[in-house]
Specification:
The complex is a heterodimer of chains A (139) and B (196).
Chain A: H1 10-14, H2 34-48, H3 54-71, H4 80-94, H5 100-111, H6 134-137
Helix pairs in contact in A: 2-4, 3-4
Chain B: H1 3-6, H2 10-23, H3 29-42, H4 45-57, H5 59-67, H6 69-75, E1 86-90, E2 95-100, H7 109-112, H8 117-120, H9 122-130, H10 132-138, E3 148-153, E4 159-163, H11 175-179, H12 184-188
Parallel strand pairs in B: 1-4, 2-3
Helix pairs in contact in B: 4-5, 5-6, 9-10
Classes of the chains: A mainly alpha (139), B mainly alpha (196).
C-alpha cells in the first residue's frame, strides 16, 4: 500500500489479499528470513517455559520499536523482527537467561566463521540441527 | 541491545542467542520449530473467516461473539497466545471499525495468525490514527462521509477483530462459501468482505 511510506515489502506485495487461506497457501510469507522465525520461536518457547513473561517482553518490544523510530524518522531500514530480536536479547539478559558478554562473544565467533557457514541453517523439517559450540568452531 | 550489537547481522545475533539458550537447556529446537510451523501453516486468517461466517449465519453465535469474543472463538476451537481477551467489533452501515497497535504490533493470533508487514510498519501504526479515511482509501476502501470510522488501538490486554458486514447477494451461500469471502484485511478493518 502506498500508506506504508514507500517501503516496498516483498511479503506484502506477494500477498494476494484474496480470500483467507493458510499463509503459505495464499503466497504470504509469515517470516521473511529464517532468523526471523528463529527469533519468533525463541520468544514463544521461553514464554511457554515460564522463563519470560509476555507482558514484560511486550514492554521491551515497545521500547525497542520506540527507540528505533526516534532514531530513524525516515523509516528507512525498518525491520520489525530486528526490534523483536533486540527486545528478546534485553529480556533474556534481564532475566539472567544469558550473559550479555557471552552473547556478544558468541555472536562474534559466529560472525567470524568462514564464508560458506550457513547462518540460517534452520531446518524446519528436522530437529537434528546441532548448535555450534566454541570447540567445533575453533579446534 | 548494545550499540555494537546493532551492527551485527540479525541472523548472527539470533543464532548466538538460540545457541546459548539451547546449550543451557532453557529451550529446545523442537519446541521452537513447533511454534514456527504452527504459525506458518496452521494458524491464520482462515480461522477468523470461519468465525465471521458462523456469525453471519447464526444469530445466537453472533450475539455470543460480540458479548465475549474469546469464549465464542474458542467454541470453534481457536485459542492460544494473544487470544486471551479478544473483542469483536461489528461493522454497520453507519460505523466502520479498523484495528491498529500503535506501540508494537499486538494482533489476535488465534483468529488471524501473525500480522502482515504493513500492520507492523511505523507508517500504518501512526497514520491510521491521524488520518484513517485517507489510509483506508489507499487500501482501496472508500467510505462515505456518513460512515463513522472508529480506530481501535490494541492494548496490553485486548486484541481486536473486526466483524465485517455480510455482502449483499449472499443469501444462498453455505457457511464455507461465506468464509471464502472473508479476507484478513476485512477482519483488520482495512477492507470489506468480498462480494461473491
Amino acid at each position: 500500500m502506498s500508506g506504508s511510506g514507500g517501503h516496498a515489502d516483498p511479503a506484502y506485495l506477494l500477498d494476494s489479499s484474496g480470500p483467507a487461506s493458510p499463509p503459505r497457501d495464499n503466497g504470504e510469507l509469515v517470516f521473511a528470513a529464517p532468523w526471523e522465525s528463529r527469533a519468533f520461536g525463541l520468544a514463544l518457547a521461553l514464554n511457554e517455559a515460564g522463563l519470560i513473561d509476555w507482558e514484560g517482553f511486550r514492554q521491551a518490544l515497545i521500547r525497542e520499536i520506540g527507540d528505533w523510530e526516534a532514531a530513524h524518522p525516515s523509516g528507512e531500514g525498518w525491520s520489525y523482527y530486528e526490534c523483536w530480536l533486540g527486545a528478546l536479547e534485553r529480556t533474556a539478559s534481564a532475566k539472567g537467561l544469558v550473559d550479555p558478554r557471552a552473547l556478544a562473544d558468541r555472536a562474534a565467533q559466529i560472525a567470524a566463521l568462514p564464508a560458506g557457514h550457513d547462518h540460517e541453517a534452520h531446518d524446519h523439517d528436522g530437529h537434528e540441527h546441532s548448535m555450534h559450540n566454541e570447540t567445533s568452531h575453533h579446534p | 541491545m548494545t550499540t555494537a550489537a546493532e551492527h551485527i547481522d540479525p541472523a548472527v545475533r539470533a543464532e548466538a542467542l538460540a545457541s546459548l539458550l539451547i546449550e543451557r537447556g532453557l529451550v529446545d529446537q523442537a519446541t521452537m520449530d513447533n511454534f514456527i510451523k504452527t504459525y506458518e501453516l496452521s494458524v491464520g486468517p482462515m480461522n477468523g473467516a470461519k468465525v465471521v461466517a458462523r456469525a453471519w449465519t447464526d444469530p445466537g453465535y453472533r450475539e455470543r461473539l460480540l458479548a465475549d469474543g474469546t469464549a465464542a472463538i474458542a467454541e470453534l476451537g481457536f485459542k492460544g497466545p494473544q487470544g486471551e481477551h479478544i473483542v469483536v467489533l461489528e461493522n454497520t452501515p453507519d460505523a466502520h471499525n479498523v484495528v491498529v497497535c500503535t506501540l508494537c504490533s499486538c494482533y489476535p493470533w488465534p483468529v488471524l495468525g501473525l500480522p502482515p508487514s504493513w500492520y507492523k510498519d511505523p507508517s500504518y501504526r501512526s497514520r491510521i490514527v491521524r488520518e484513517p479515511r485517507a489510509v483506508l482509501a489507499e487500501f482501496g476502501l472508500e467510505l462515505g462521509d456518513d460512515v463513522a470510522i472508529r480506530v481501535f488501538d490494541s492494548s496490553s490486554e485486548v486484541r481486536y477483530m473486526v466483524l465485517p458486514m455480510r455482502p449483499a447477494g449472499t443469501d444462498g451461500l453455505s457457511e464455507a462459501e461465506l468464509a471464502a469471502l472473508v479476507t484478513r484485511d476485512a477482519m483488520v478493518g482495512v477492507a470489506e468482505a468480498v462480494a461473491p
